[in-house]
Specification:
Radius of gyration: 24 Å
Strand order of the largest sheet: 2-1-3-4
Largest sheet: 4 strands, mixed
Distance between the termini: 81 Å
CATH superfamily: Immunoglobulins
Shape: globular
Number of strands: 14
CATH class: Mainly Beta
């Protein structure tokens, strides 16, 4: 009897030790711990990732995607990644009963450029694009998190943007920025990189009175007010790119809700190679 009890105790001890080893192995090789260490830059900060949403107030399936963009921006749910949101309202829904006040033909054209890069025959909404490389239906949070996690592990350029000193007497509706880009990763063969400046505005709302969302009150975040090219690079690495662009605040924009986003993007393949954002609120 005593020998049987001793044998049972030995078996239990062996099982416990095996479980402990398995737990220790899982802890050291789990995706979460692996991802967190991989997705930080040289300063130990999260890697900026550009998340674009092509949307429209005239599209009934777009509000859930708008909500996903808001959650991504507000909660920053992906370890090691800093989500920089860009909400781009296309204009091709405007003919169906509601003119989206934030829409612009330029955003529709930008989405068409993505369609060409992805080899798609056409465009759709809501479409989410992560760092110019992954595209999917914008309301799919799981795909968004997966794509952001992958993008944060890619090599990135060092992008810096700050507010230039404001001389006494200078108009408050003209904001000067200081931009610096260096250590650009290797470009795709035959491609060039563009330095982009986007101005976004948070906390925008609409009471929709026509179209598919008639009667709904819609809320938006990171609505792109303007986007432009401020420079280009033909080779990776090399000397640093610097610029001092001027942002002019248009009527109806609220400076306290504005942000400037600088990002580096390949012209043809559309791959985003680095990004940084700054609040434009007066200090």
């Amino acid at each position: 009897m005593k020998s049987l009890v001793a044998m049972l105790i030995a078996v239990v001890a062996l099982f416990s030790s095996l479980v402990a080893v398995d737990r220790q192995t899982s802890a050291t090789t789990s995706p979460a711990s692996e991802d967190t260490s991989a997705r930080v830059n040289a300063e130990g900060k999260p890697m900026p990732v550009i998340v674009e949403l092509f949307t429209s107030e005239g599209c009934s399936s777009c509000p859930p995607a708008d909500a996903v963009l808001i959650e991504l921006e507000k909660t920053q749910p992906v370890p090691g990644a800093e989500v920089i949101a860009l909400g781009e309202h296309v204009d091709y829904w405007n003919r169906l009963g509601w003119t989206d006040p934030y829409s612009d033909a330029g955003f529709s054209a930008r989405q068409s450029e993505y369609a060409q890069a992805f080899g798609r025959d056409g465009v759709y909404t809501p479409q989410m694009i992560v760092d110019g490389q992954a595209e999917f239906i914008g309301s799919n949070m799981n795909k968004a998190r997966e794509a952001i996690s992958k993008a944060a592990r890619a090599p990135k350029a060092a992008v810096q943007v700050s507010l230039a000193p404001n001389p006494a007497g200078k108009k408050t509706d003209a904001i000067a920025l200081l931009v610096r880009v260096e250590n650009v990763p290797a470009l795709s063969a035959g491609d060039t990189a563009q330095i982009m400046l986007a101005i976004t505005e948070n906390d925008l709302r609409s009471q929709v009175s026509g179209g598919e969302n008639a009667g709904r009150s819609l809320r938006h975040i990171a609505v792109v007010r303007q986007i432009e090219v401020i420079g280009s690079l033909a080779t990776e690495g090399g000397s640093a790119f610097t610029a001092e662009p001027i942002v002019t605040i248009a009527n109806g924009w609220k400076r306290d809700n504005l942000r400037a986003v600088i990002f580096v993007q390949e012209r043809r393949r559309r791959r985003v190679l680095g990004a940084q954002a700054i609040e434009l609120a007066a200090k």
